[in-house]
Amino acid sequence: MSENTLIDPSLTDEERELSAMLRSFADDVVAPRSYEADRTRTLPLDVVAQMGELGLFGLPFPEEVGGQGGDYFSLCLAVEALGRVDQSMAITLEAAVSLGAMPIFRFGTAEQRERWLPDLVAGRALAGFGLTEPEAGSDAGATRTTARLDDGAWVVNGSKQFITNSGTDITRFVTVTAVTGESQGKKEISTIIVPSGTPGFHVLPAYDKVGWHASDTHPLAFDDVRVPEDHLLGERGRGFAAFLHILDEGRIAIAALATGAAEGCLKAAVEYSRSRNVFGSPLSSRQSMQFLLARMQLRVHNARLAWHHAARLRDAGRPFKTEAAIAKLTASDAAMDNARDATQVFGGNGFMNEFAVARHYRDSKILEIGEGTTEVQLLVIARSLGLV
Q1: Nearest CA among 63, 7, 35, 361 for reference residue 214
Q2: pTM here?
């Protein structure tokens, strides 16, 4: 399978060089650790540190805050490269940047940025994004977690679930959406920075997940957690609106991750079909197999074009909400379909976790759920047509 068929020819020379470096790192450093990390359900923080040394966590941030001076497209190239070999490591990077550091960069005060960003963009620290609750998933406006001012401090009570990067040894804080009052009969939702180790902030045991086993994911509980008033992130009452924008960006990165997963499944299926002899000839010699692999390539191609387009729009400062939804929907479908087909190509071996396609089969389902379900993406697209 030619590498040229998998790379958009519109990439600049710098982007091609970055992509090649990222893919080499993924193949040489991340992939050899993937099976054991998945089996033991452990996030390899030494690999995270190497990602930090390469500057991956700082890709979309300007140099004045310690970043690499790149753009969101560059971050997505990194997420895609990692997603080919290990979705857990890819989502660790994506969530650390899109959901951890980006809100501080975009909405934080000068003091907040000075305090938190240097370690985040260097990969020395991680941060979580506390939005989802037991009763507030796709309907994030149903938030029940509260924060009230008391003698110069926010007092936070409530719970969050499915929070990535929230319980590692290098997690510094979680940004939490909370109801801080009412305005014209509607909930006023703001965002509060809650540092790790704050009394009353409880990181509950990690989930027993279907996939993404090496990704750190926990439910959180807040019991009269007190943080200084200056831990408000952004404008009071604008927390929900701000995070909707953050989620739009995140959908592009998830689309890149899903594209990488779809490509990883394609590459594995092509190689296996060539090496597997059935009734005296390679499996790849059968036209039915050739057509299946061709459809897998079609999905990768379309998914990559979709996220590239959305990322370019975002970096150009143009509206991208609908294109992000299209990219996320197209790529998550591609990942799930390619994982299923690749597992079938591998036969019984595809059911064994030591093979990457088996892990992709388990991992890819969440791509149709996280950062906006398939149904939410369809709703966004329908709205763009004036139908909702």
Answers
A1: 35
A2: 0.94
Burial of 279 (0-12, 13-18, 19+ CB in 10 A): exposed
Domain count, the chain: 3
| Cα–Cα nearest to 47, from 28, 29, 74, 65 | 29
CATH code (residue 75): 1.10.540.10
**Where is the domain boundary, 198, 216, 237?**
237
Per-residue pLDDT tens digits for 177-232: 999 998 777 889 999 999 999 999 999 999 999 999 999 999 999 999 999 999 99
**What are the tens digits of pLDDT across the range 336-360?**
999 999 999 999 999 999 999 999 9
Pair (303, 375) in one structural domain: yes
**Residues taking part in catalysis:** 371
CATH number at residue 230: 2.40.110.10
Residue 14, classed as helix, strand or coil, is helix
Of 47, 133, 52, nearest to 86 by C-alpha is 47
- Of 102, 203, 99, the closest CA to residue 161 belongs to 203
Secondary-structure percent of the chain, ordered helix, strand, coil, rounded to 5: 60, 20, 25
Q: Which two tokens stand for residue 388?
A: 């909702």
Taking the alpha carbons of 337, 355, 206, 124 in that order, is the dihedral positive or negative?
negative
